[in-house]
Specification:
Elements: E1 10-13, E2 18-21, E3 27-32, E4 38-39, E5 41-50, E6 53-56, E7 62-68, E8 75-81, E9 85-93, E10 99-108, E11 112-122, E12 131-136, E13 141-146, E14 149-156, E15 161-166, H1 176-179, E16 190-193, E17 195-205, E18 210-220, H2 223-234, H3 238-253, H4 268-288, H5 317-329, H6 334-346, H7 376-392, H8 397-418, E19 428-429, E20 436-437, H9 440-460, H10 465-487, E21 488-489, E22 493-494, E23 497-499, E24 502-504, H11 526-543, E25 544-547, E26 550-554, E27 566-567, H12 568-584, H13 590-609, E28 619-620, E29 627-628, H14 634-647
Antiparallel strand pairs: 1-2, 2-3, 3-4, 5-6, 5-11, 7-8, 8-9, 9-10, 10-18, 11-17, 12-13, 12-16, 13-14, 14-18, 15-17, 19-20, 21-22, 23-24, 25-26, 26-27, 28-29
Helix pairs in contact: 4-14, 5-6, 5-7, 5-14, 7-8, 7-9, 8-9, 9-10, 12-13, 12-14
Length: about 650
């Protein structure tokens, strides 16, 4: 099988290059020129040759520890071997150039003779077919290419030997991987087809001595361009490149909304951990955001052949609006503005949005091509978020924005009107993309979208604005009433949905969407507050999974996707609902303390699931509590940010206001 499902432990990148990496420094993803661009690598990892054998750095014989420098996208991986060999790897992507810089520092307690090999099985253009590679003697560079994708690998100090081979080892040029096994490379100059390549340097270390080797991997649209770019980066001191990267990231983070988190004053360790993961989640969203198009990647692709799922390397409006809301609240409104420009361009002629898109706005592979398989919540949540952004603007910016987005909102609202003529929405696919029917979450998203459109219509000051506002608001109220009437169960929670004309009584965590974020239920109404508390109780009892010392929340009863793990998103929904309830209280009492403490338990559970580099996944393994499946997931990062911003609004009950 060409593509294997591999989950990253860390990511780094710049505007044109996104790299995902395993916990031992092996490259899993090399995406260019966009975050959803071609996956140009199958394997890319270093090894040592000593005592007649290869010691691959990603093999189980090495212990590993991977961290990220606070406030940066610089990845540090430390490998240690029982033989006394230590390898420290520092990875950084150049600020401006699509070049990955890998600094290896090798130390041995004993005398070490052998070779350092850097091996890559590149798939330029995202395919193993019809690739080419050659060794450039004049540039000291190994170059792989396909069409207008040229990948160059160089080292400092310059390598001593090389091999370009066939991965299947057919023909006179050995596979580079096999050619390494005797510690001497064949030095083939060029090859075509399904190819791999290796660069080799001699090692001779005395006990306690260290050697530093820098590997550069650059990608460009032409052979001279990749050579010039990589050699240009090599000509600058690494310390200067690191400093530039640190300064750029520090400047970006300086715009964030600062955190006081006084509610955590009595627990400074947790407070510092929260701030670090808050920063890391912001940086993850920045790396997931397309700087030109404004779309936001759900997660770096790890299943490109759709072997176990439908893939994640796309933009869903549902995920993206959560990301832009979080960024907006955290001090980065420019991401929302850019995303809404993208939404104007990608809206379909009927006023809806497609299931998912490539970042450039073209329709992605989908199972949402028909009315009953579309996902109506995506259109509702998009309109809801546009209004949230609009409410934050002041004149004249608000007027200018509304003028630019009016037609998009009006078309979207009319589409939702056409899909809710019976009050509840027409049958469609649920947000989990698993069932077709009528769902509380989808109705709540439509309710919020129509209310948002109505608000903008009232503000729009056009001849039909008040009529539109009244019509859309009335429909929203009808949807709200019928959702409560038809989907609220006497047991005290919303049905999972009406599926095959059957009201399903199983518990689904997404029912909390009727409270957060969409506000179909309000804490200001005592009866509705009781409904919210009842919903939360049913979700906790039916969907809690004990792992990591706390409880995570799975999606719904009998969920079998990837073994039915608890999800980060669902757990953060619950913690956010508890925090919203706490914020709504007029006084800080026992109820307040209980709500805050319960929310903190869920937040701590989420934090324990993060990878060692601080990225949040879609799920946590129900047995180990470790990050599982897509990572980083933009949706998870966004909800963590929103939870922490809510937490920041609270005060410790020991310092009550007078």
């Amino acid at each position: 099988m060409r593509f294997l499902i591999r989950h990253p432990n860390a990511i780094l990148g710049n505007d044109r290059l996104l790299v995902s990496m395993g916990e031992k420094g092996n490259i899993l993803g090399f995406f260019y020129p966009r975050r959803d661009g071609e996956q140009h690598v199958s394997d890319s990892v270093a090894c040592l040759y000593t005592d007649g054998r290869l010691m691959w750095f990603d093999s189980p014989e090495w212990n590993s520890e991977q961290t990220v420098d606070d406030g940066t996208n610089i990845i540090n991986t430390h490998l240690s071997h029982s033989s006394g060999i230590d390898v420290s790897i520092q990875d950084i992507v150049h600020n401006e150039m699509p070049v990955l810089i890998r600094k290896y520092e090798i130390t041995s307690k004993e005398h070490l003779n052998g070779k350092f090999y850097y091996y890559s099985n590149f798939q330029a253009g995202g395919t193993s077919r019809m690739n080419s590679a050659y060794f450039d003697v004049n540039q000291d560079m190994l170059v792989h290419y396909m069409h207008d994708f040229y990948i160059g690998v160089a080292t400092d100090p310059a390598f001593d030997e090389w091999q370009v081979g066939k991965t299947n080892d057919k023909g006179w040029a050995k596979s580079a991987r096999i050619d390494m096994e005797d510690g001497k490379l064949q030095k083939n100059m060029e090859e075509i087809g399904d190819i791999d390549g290796t660069l080799g340097l001699d090692l001779a270390l005395m006990p306690g001595e260290s050697l530093t080797i820098t590997v550069l991997i650059g990608i460009a649209s032409g052979r001279q361009a990749v050579c010039d770019m990589t050699q240009g980066v090599l000509s600058h001191p690494l310390s200067e490149i690191i400093r530039d990267s640190e300064n750029t990231t520090a400047e970006w983070l300086s715009k964030k909304r600062p955190l006081e988190l006084s509610v955590l004053d009595l627990d400074p360790v947790i407070r510092n951990d929260v701030i670090r993961l808050y920063d890391r989640s912001l940086l993850s969203l920045n790396l997931m955001s397309d700087p030109n198009e404004g779309a936001i990647l759900a997660a770096p692709e790890f299943d490109p052949a759709f072997e176990m799922c439908g893939g994640y390397g796309f933009c869903w409006n549902r995920d993206a609006v959560e990301a832009v809301l979080a960024l907006m609240k955290a001090g980065y409104p420019e991401y929302a503005e850019k995303f809404f420009t993208w939404c104007k361009r990608t809206q379909m002629s009927d006023g809806s949005w497609f299931q998912r898109y490539w970042l450039d706005g073209t329709e992605a592979p989908s199972w949402g091509n028909f009315d009953d398989s579309t996902q109506l919540d995506e259109t509702g949540s998009t309109l809801f978020t546009i209004d949230r952004y609009y409410r934050e603007l002041e004149d004249p910016d608000s007027v200018e924005f509304l003028d630019s987005i009016r037609e998009t909102v009006w078309k979207g609202a009319e589409y939702l009107m056409g899909r809710t003529e019976q009050g509840l929405h027409d049958p469609c696919r649920c947000l989990w993309e698993s069932e077709k029917g009528i769902f509380p979450y989808t109705n709540a998203a439509i309710y919020a979208g129509l209310k948002g459109a109505a608000h903008m219509a009232r503000e729009g000051d056009d001849s039909n604005g008040s009529n539109r506002a009244e019509m859309w608001s009335e429909r929203a109220d009808r949807i709200r009433g019928m959702t409560i009437d038809k989907l609220w169960l006497k047991e005290g929670y919303f049905s999972r949905g009406i599926i095959d004309n059957d009201v399903r009584s199983s518990v689904d965590s997404s029912i909390i969407g009727t409270f957060v974020p969409f506000g179909l239920l309000s804490v200001d109404d005592p009866d509705e507050k009781s409904m919210i508390l009842s919903m939360i109780g049913h979700i906790e009892r039916a969907l809690s999974v004990p792992v990591n010392g706390y409880y995570g929340i799975k999606r719904y009863e009998n969920d079998s996707y990837i073994g039915g793990n608890p999800w980060i998103v669902t757990t953060l929904w619950l913690s956010r609902s508890l925090l919203e309830l706490a914020v709504s209280l007029d006084e800080k009492n026992e109820e307040y303390d209980s709500l805050v403490n319960r929310s903190l338990e869920y937040i701590k559970w989420v934090m324990r699931s993060a990878t060692s580099s601080g990225i949040l996944s879609e799920q946590a393994d129900k047995n180990t509590g470790k990050a599982a499946w897509a990572r980083p997931l933009s949706w998870s990062c966004a909800l963590f940010i929103e939870n922490i911003l809510l937490l920041d609004r609270l005060k410790d009950s020991s310092s009550k206001d007078d």
